[in-house]
Amino acid sequence: MGHTGAKDIYQELGDSLDSLTTRTPGNKAFQAIITELYTPEEAEFIVRMPTGLSSLDQLMKTTGMQRPQLEHLLTESCDKGLVVDFWLQDNYYYAPAPFIIGLFEFTMMRTGEGCDYKKWAGLFHDYLSGNDDFYRANSGDNNLVSLMRTLPHEEAVSEYIEVLDYEKAKAIIEAQEKLAVGFCSCRHEKHHLGLKKCDTPMDNCTSMGMSADYLVRHKMARSISKTEMLEILDRSRELCLVFNADNVKQNVSFICHCCKCCCNALAGISKWGYVNSVVSSTLIAECDEVKCEACGKCVKACPVDGVSLIDQSAGERDRTKKTVHVDRDFCLGCGVCALKCSTGAMRLKKREQRVFHPENIFEKIMLTALERGTLQNQLFPNPNLFTHKFMRGLVGGFCRLPAVKKALMSNQLRSRFLKSIETGARIQGRGWMTQL
Predict the structure, then answer these.
(1) Residue 194's pLDDT is what?
(2) Exposure class string for 98-107: b at 16+ Cβ within 10 A, else e
(3) Which of 65, 186, 245, 323 is 20 to 30 Å from 226 at the Cα level?
(4) Which residue ranges form the domains of the chain, and what is each CATH number?
């Protein structure tokens, strides 16, 4: 590798991370994070890595590094959560970890010596809570695709309402073979800053499949049985936590157990007002005014401040009564309000407007990249090839046109667009990626 100056390489690293599916706008707070977490050697290595998944042989060609040096650097980077490695097609494939879901979570889930959690928590808090740069970059354009989607508490669903298996937390877990649990990164961050206001246990960040395998191998989580996973699920229901899962229908890789006071994803809605920071379930909360006693429990319980009590004329000598109002844009369809309702007035019913959830990880990555303006980096992932640099500039400029982006994300063209991307992946010999 070259000998780029330390200051320059961290600027390049910031630009490289901002080119992934999750945008990370550069500022002093973000520069402080990457300077703390990456050595100059790691920064230069990741700048030279392709954006997508690459085998060890591909990385040797891309970086020009010899196998022993490369293997050592990959081991160190994966253990720190800077790079992800997944076992696919009888081989390990590597990719730079995006900021979320990735660098933030993996850093705060790390164990072992040399973990300065309090310092890291402060750095992440400065970036995520100091201003809305991160949320605006990822949710500020009314984006259709988010990284997470809410799962409804089945106990909160009205009778005769069908909930499909991909929206049932228990059904998702039952379909998995590899399960793991680790520290909740958001809760861990708030704990070290003295901002954790709840009694929620720290160890309830659950993962599955290849994500669980990655976290366990790198000592960020421990393997658990389905029985323990379901016990954690029951505990979270009793605590009225929000189930936020990987925003895909197939091969779900994680379920977060989120609380109102700690979750950074929910703060995107409640603090910054970006209602698509988390995609809602296909359900929405509704109140039966006949059963409602206007006790306000649902108002306090709502994790995104989407429920309120309003005055309504009762028609008797100008008397007023309190009625429940659900903000249809804010409502996650989680059912936490219904779990707290003692009269059964709050229940979950089907939304009138259709909610879009990608089929699998491949779809989510491609559609997220299209909306965030980074699709070109997924299609032409090698940062060191002139042809890829040229095509990234050409395709990137085209896809950033609002009319083009809107058309490709529309119901009419979205499936056709994804089919063409899948065809391209197969031509490149990477058709297996479309099944992730």
Answers:
(1) 95
(2) bbbbbbbbbb
(3) 186
(4) 6-97 (1.10.10.10), 101-109+132-355 (no CATH), 361-435 (no CATH)
